[in-house]
Design brief:
14 helices; 5'-nucleotidase,  domain 2; six-stranded mixed sheet; Purple Acid Phosphatase, chain A, domain 2; alpha/beta; 2 domains
Length: about 475
């Protein structure tokens, strides 16, 4: 029997998490790209046949990334040298032409099998990558689905086969093309969320020979990989504070995994030495950012936090209250995912503000009925919307929504201290991202939200509104108040 041992390391949703942070009073550093590379170098020295992959969303979430429009990210990742990367939704944040430019800058392959250039039936990216390691051939295929591709809806150049069923069929097309080749291991790199990975695995034909799914998007932390339809499924949370590690033995005669272990490895200075040259390289980007943006905007009364996007947070409340004050709205709904820091303050610099809110967007006010509002809140508070794959929201002071988990229904909705009446009208302000994707994110169409009155753009920059509000609200204290209540 011919066998080989491989170590597959994997990250997902790095979101520009390049700089290590201090871990409490112990002073240990956790995360950061130089520490991550330190671990990669250590494993590469200790083991044979080491492979490092990234399951989407290298981009966005840090000022270093946004200031240089992703070019800094690709330059830093060239230093880390992943073996193969798949697209996430945030790789499209700077536009399709810029993504194609970044792909040419990258020294590593970026794969996706199911995004096509409309009218030409040509795949946007290379669909797969075959690695030849120690005499074995390993096939990597990239997949994304419609749940996470709303960010490119405005781009009419892109067509797709991105339902789960269509993505499954694309995997079949590629694996069938290799039936006459000796592929020893087949790995799907997905950016579709953990629950969707489970569903996709159940749909795959065992004859296609998919052995593993390494995924991202939902920021899921696992104790052990799931196994569905004989396929191992693993995610590695979010950022650079940890990395997933598979140690496997592959049988080259049966093209199957015969031994496997997996763990989530913490990245910190207790066991890892950072790569000094990469640390210096990252510092060169940080110096540019610090010189430009290190000015104090406000001192908050207490630190505002945002530890989890699925629940009400003090930073979410601060954000929604700031925006509602400037937009003459009854209800301000802020996408929890657009708040990218877990904490802000007490001292807040312009750099802190931009890192916390990297996705600037316009704000649009709609006139909707109370019945519409109840429908929206019933949709966003559903349990299945709070699994890490849905779109969750923060709301302003004066809004109180109560949801019955057991019976899956909205119990009550109050605005301004009064119960919402079906026939009354209310002014609802949303980020344009959610307006464009209203049906998926809110359970109501853009046309339905526009039937009573023409929507009005009340600000072209969410960040401008926040910056001016914070300047005028020194020592502001935001707390969790029970705006979104689950019974």
């Amino acid at each position: 029997m011919s066998t080989r041992r491989f170590t597959i390391l994997h990250s997902n949703d790095l979101h520009g998490d390049f700089v290590a942070e201090s871990e409490g009073p112990s002073g240990h550093l956790i995360g950061g790209l130089s520490l991550l590379l330190g671990y990669l170098n250590k494993v590469r020295r200790e083991e044979d046949n080491v492979i490092y992959v990234i399951a989407g969303d290298m981009m966005q979430g840090s000022l270093i990334d946004s200031e240089f429009r992703g070019i800094s990210t690709v330059e830093l990742m060239n230093y880390v040298a992943p073996d193969v990367v798949t697209l996430g939704n945030h790789e499209f944040d700077y536009g399709l032409p810029h993504l194609l430019f970044l792909e040419r800058v990258a020294n590593f392959p970026i794969v996706n099998a199911n995004l096509y250039i409309r009218n030409y039936n040509r795949r946007l990216m290379r669909p797969y990558h075959v690695m030849h390691v120690a005499g074995y051939d390993i096939l990597f295929i990239g997949v994304i689905t419609e749940k996470v591709m709303s960010s490119i809806v405005p781009d009419e150049q892109i067509g797709s086969f991105i339902s789960l069923e269509e993505a499954c069929a694309e995997v079949g097309h590629i694996t069938n093309a290799y039936k006459n080749d000796d592929i020893d291991l087949t790995v799907l790199l997905t950016h579709i969320g953990y629950e969707s990975d489970l569903e996709l695995a159940s749909m795959l034909d065992p004859e296609w020979g998919v052995d593993m799914i390494i995924g991202g998007h939902s920021h899921t932390v696992l104790e052990q990989p799931a196994v569905v339809n004989g396929i191992q499924i693993a995610h590695a949370g979010v950022g650079t504070d940890q990395i997933g590690r598979f140690d496997i033995v592959v049988d080259g005669e049966t093209n199957s995994i015969i031994e496997s272990s997996w763990k989530l490895v913490p990245i910190d200075t207790r066991t890892i030495e950072p790569d000094p040259k990469l640390r210096e390289y990252i510092a060169s980007f940080r110096d540019t950012i610090d010189r430009k943006y290190n000015t104090l905007i406000v001192h908050l009364g207490v630190e505002a936090t945002h530890p989890c996007r699925e629940v009400e947070t003090s930073l979410g409340n601060l954000t929604a209250d700031a925006l509602v004050a400037a937009t003459d709205a009854d209800v301000m709904m802020v996408g929890s995912g657009s708040i990218r820091a877990q904490a802000l303050g007490p001292a807040v610099t312009l750099q802190d503000l931009l890192a916390c809110y990297p996705y600037d967007d316009a704000l649009t006010r709609h006139t909707v009925t109370g019945a519409d509002l109840k429908r929206i809140f019933a949709h966003i508070m559903r349990p299945e919307n709070r699994t890490g794959e849905g779109e969750c929201f923060q709301v302003n002071h004066g809004v109180v929504a109560e949801y019955d988990e057991a019976n899956r229904r909205l119990i009550s909705l109050r605005v301004g201290g009064r119960p919402v009446a079906d026939e009354r009208t209310y002014r609802l302000v949303l980020q344009d991202y959610h307006v464009r994707n209203a049906e998926a994110n809110l359970g109501i169409t853009t046309a339905e939200m526009s039937r009573l009155a023409r929507p009005r753009v009340v600000s072209t920059s969410l960040r401008d509104v926040l910056q001016e509000y914070l300047r005028d609200h020194q020592n502001r204290v935001a707390r969790v108040e029970g705006r979104l209540v689950y019974r």
